[in-house]
Design a protein that fits this description.
This protein has eight helices and nine strands. It is α/β, with parallel strands linked by helices and 229 residues long. The strands form three sheets. It has a four-stranded antiparallel sheet with strand order 7-1-8-9, covered by helices on one side. The radius of gyration is 20 Å and the shape is globular. The mean pLDDT is 91.
Length: 229
């Protein structure tokens, strides 16, 4: 059963012509009538089938406007690196003892960073961390000796971009409370990252089939990207 709030939202917005994010943001924010600070979310459908192989995108983007979320960062490292992790602002720091806690199901963090040496031990927990999307990955910058930079990126506003088997990508671009300028900067950073991934995957033609923007409890609108991706 639809709520009174939902019934007041515009209908059949998916039938409207695609428009730019600059024009759609005021409309989206007007639709954010809940009491909490709704997220502004992007949804992309990509052409993930190529002649010789499938397109697999998994990367991170540092959002210049941040995410508006507080991220609890955990670090698995050697004793000599613990002070570095602490000074950089890590919320949880540990070694073998922490790995044992994760193994027993004690997972109270949103981001896990690990040094290469400790990754050998942590890799055995793939069945626990993998399904939750928490397994550190060198490609994503979460397996590194530079803990200071990795923790700073995770805390300041970093989003993961990955497509599922059907070619769908979902990523938040900010909050209703963000200024339009901040959201647009995040949006452009995501498009730049997708453009790089298109080149890395040697995609011929367009990568993105369609794009939509919505709020947490709102309705979606077709996006005009304005870039050849």
């Amino acid at each position: 059963m639809k709520s009174k709030r939902f019934k007041k939202l515009p209908e059949k917005t998916s039938e409207l012509a695609a428009d730019t994010i600059e024009k759609l943001l005021p409309v989206l924010k007007k639709n954010c009538t809940t009491k909490f600070d709704e997220s502004i979310d992007l949804s992309f459908q990509i052409y993930n089938k190529q002649k010789k192989n499938e397109v697999n995108i998994r990367t991170v983007v540092n959002l210049p406007g941040g995410t508006g979320k507080k991220v609890k960062v955990a670090v698995v490292c050697e004793d000599v690196k613990k002070d570095e992790a602490k000074d950089a602002g890590a919320d949880i720091i540990g070694g073998d003892d922490f790995i044992d806690k994760i193994k027993s199901g004690e997972i109270n963090f949103e981001k896990l960073i690990c040094t290469p040496t400790m990754m050998i031990k942590l890799s055995k927990l793939g069945k626990i961390l993998g399904p939750k999307g928490l397994m550190p990955n060198p490609k994503l910058g979460s397996v590194t000796t530079d803990l200071k930079s990795a923790i700073k990126d995770a805390k300041s506003g970093q989003a993961e971009i990955r497509n599922d088997k059907d070619g769908n990508i979902g990523v938040s671009v900010g909050k209703k409370s963000f200024s339009d300028d901040k959201i647009i900067k995040n949006f452009n950073a995501i498009l730049d990252t997708l453009e790089k991934e298109k080149s890395n995957n040697t995609v011929k033609g367009d990568l993105i089939k369609s794009a939509f923007i919505t709020s947490t409890m709102g309705v979606s609108y077709k996006l005009k990207l304005g870039k050849n991706i």
